[in-house]
Amino acid sequence: MTTDRELRERAGKVIPGGMYGHLNAAIFAPGYPQFFERARGCRQWDVDGREYLDFMCSWGPVVLGHRHPRVEEAAARQAAKGDCLNGPGPVMVELAELLVDTVPSADWVMFSKNGTDATTQALMVARAATGRTKVLMAHGAYHGADPWCTPSLAGTTPNERADLAEFAYNSLTGLEEAAAALDGEVAAIIVTPFKHDSFEDQELAEPEFARGARRLADRIGSALVIDDVRAGFRVDLRGSWEQYGVRPDLTAWSKAMANGYPIAAVTGTDALRGAAQTLYSTGSFWFSGVAMAAAKATIETLRDTDAITAMERAGARLRAGLYAQAESHGFTVNQTGPVTIPWLSFDGDADLSVAMHWTTECLRNGVYLHPWHNWFLSAAHTAEDIALALDGTDSAFSATKRHFS
Ligand code: PMP
Fold first, then answer.
1. Ligand 1 centre from 404 Cα, in Å?
2. How far is the CA of 391 from the centre of ligand 1 (A)?
3. What cofactor does this protein call for (predicted)?
C-alpha cells in the first residue's frame, strides 16, 4: 500500500470525509496524490517520493518558487525573535508602508490571514462607510468560504446570503441593471480582476467593463472592491486593474503575498480610512510576525527583480508549446487567462473527461496540472523546466489521443 493510501485511510477516520475543501484530491482526477512531503523551486514531492513539476504552486501562494532563500531567511530571522507576541513587531508597520508605497490605490492596510478574511473585511468597511447592506458580485465568482460566499449552501442560512445580488461578469449593462434594481442600497461592487471560475474557460476583463464598474460605483456612491486574492502579485504588483487605469476603493489580497506564509490584507483609500477604523475586526494570529516578514521579503523581491516578467516568459512558453502540441495531436484546445495564471480546456469537452484523462497522464509524467481549476506559474519556472514539462504534456496528449480514438 502506498503511503498516500495509508494516510487517506487514517484521515478517513479522524477528518470528515478524509479531506475537505478545495484540496480534496478525491474530486480532482484519478491518481492525484493527497499528501505531500516537501517542495523546492518549482518542484514538489508527494509522500511516496514521486517528483512533480509544480504548476499549481500550492493553489497560488508560491510565487517565487518553494523555499525561496530571501523569503525563508526573512521568516527565519523573525521566527528566531518570536512570531506571536503580545503585540505586533515593527515588521507590521514596515509591511504596511511597503504596500502603501507599492499599490497606488492603497493609503492604508489591515492584515489578516486568509483571502476570505480580506474579502469579508473589505465588505465590512464598505458597509460601515455607506451605511448600506447590499453587495453586487459576479455570478459564479469565488470570493471565499465564509457563509456569505461559500459555493456550497450546506451549513449556511438564507439570511447570510440575503444581501447579495449578481451580475454577469464583463456585462456592464447587467451590472448597471443589478445596481438600479437595488435602488441606492448597494454598499459594494466586488469583482475579481478577471473571470477565473472553476470548470470553465477564464475571461479577461473587458477594459470598458472595468472602467464602467468604476464609473458606476462613483455614481451610486458604492465602494468598488477588487478581489485580487488569486491574481494579485502575478499580473501587476500595483494591482491587477492598474493596467486599465482603474483604481479600486478597496482591494483584498492574500495567496501570493508571502510566498506561502499565511497572510492576507485589505488595502483602501483615504476616503474609507475612517470607516475602517470603526470595525472590530481581529484574530489571534493576524499579527504574527513571521508571515509579515515573509510578505515583506516576497514583495521586495517581486519589486526588485524581474520575477513577474520571468513568470510571464515561462507562461508564454508553456502556452505556445501546449498549443503546438495539441494541434499536432489533432486536439483543439482553449488556453485562457493571463499566461501566469493559465488554464487549458479541450474543445467540446463539456464533462471535462478529456481534461481529466490528459491531466492524469501529465501527472504520471511528473507534471502537476489541474483538470478544472486554473494553474499558477512561479518565478522559479525556467525555460528548461518548461521544456521538461512540455515533454510530459506531449506524451500525455499522445496517450489521450489513443484513449479517445
Ligand atoms: N477570493 C479569490 C478570488 C480566491 O481565489 C480565493 C481562494 N481561492 C479567496 C477569495 C479565498 O481565499 P482563502 O481560501 O485564502 O480564504
1. 35
2. 32
3. pyridoxal 5'-phosphate
Q: What is the pLDDT of residues 54-101, one digit of tens each?
A: 999 999 999 999 999 999 999 999 999 999 999 999 999 999 999 999
What's the whole-number mean pLDDT along residues 385-399? 98
Residue 320's domain comprises 3-66+307-404
Ligand 1 within 6 A of CB of 143? yes
Quote the pTM value: 0.98
- Same domain for 330 and 189? no
Same structural domain for residues 212 and 295? yes
Sheet order of strands, 51-54 included: 36-40, 43-46, 51-54, 367-368
How many Å apart are CA 50 and CA 24, to the nearest integer? Answer: 19
Same domain, 201 and 279: yes
Bridge partners (DSSP) listed for residue 166: 137
In total, how many domains does the chain have?
2
Is ipTM > 0.90 here? yes
Asked if 113 contacts 295 with a C-beta cutoff of 8 angstroms, the reply is no
Does residue 41 have a pLDDT over 90? Answer: yes
Mutate to test the pocket of ligand 1, among 59, 63, 116, 196 (most ligand atoms within 8 A of CB): 116
Locate 2 and state its grid cell.
502506498
Please indicate whether residue 240, judged by its CB atom, sits closer than 6 Å to ligand 1: no
Residue-wise pLDDT tens digits, 206-227: 999 999 999 999 999 999 999 9
Over its C-alpha atoms, the chain yields an Rg (Å, rounded) of 21
Q: Of all atoms in ligand 1, which is nearest to the CA of residue 117?
A: 16
Are residues 29 and 110 located together in one domain of the fold?
no
Domain co-membership, 128 together with 267: yes
Residues 240 and 262 in one domain: yes
Examine the fold and report which residue of 287, 305, 323 is the final residue of a domain before the chain moves on: 305
Q: How far is the CA of 110 from the centre of ligand 1 (A)?
A: 17
| 29 pLDDT more than 90 | no
Closest atom of ligand 1 to 59 CA is 8
Q: Length of the chain in residues, anyone?
A: 405
> pLDDT at residue 155 above 90?
yes
Phi and psi torsions of 128, nearest 5°: -65, -35
Query: Given this model, what pLDDT does residue 235 score?
Result: 97
Q: How far is the CA of 199 from the centre of ligand 1 (A)?
A: 16
> What are the residue ranges of helices labelled H in 33-114?
69-81, 90-102
pLDDT of residue 30: 86
Give residue 227 CA to ligand 1 midpoint distance, Å.
Answer: 8
Q: Is the CB–ligand 1 distance for residue 234 below 6 Å?
A: no
State the distance from the centre of ligand 1 to the C-alpha of 332, rounded, in angstroms.
30
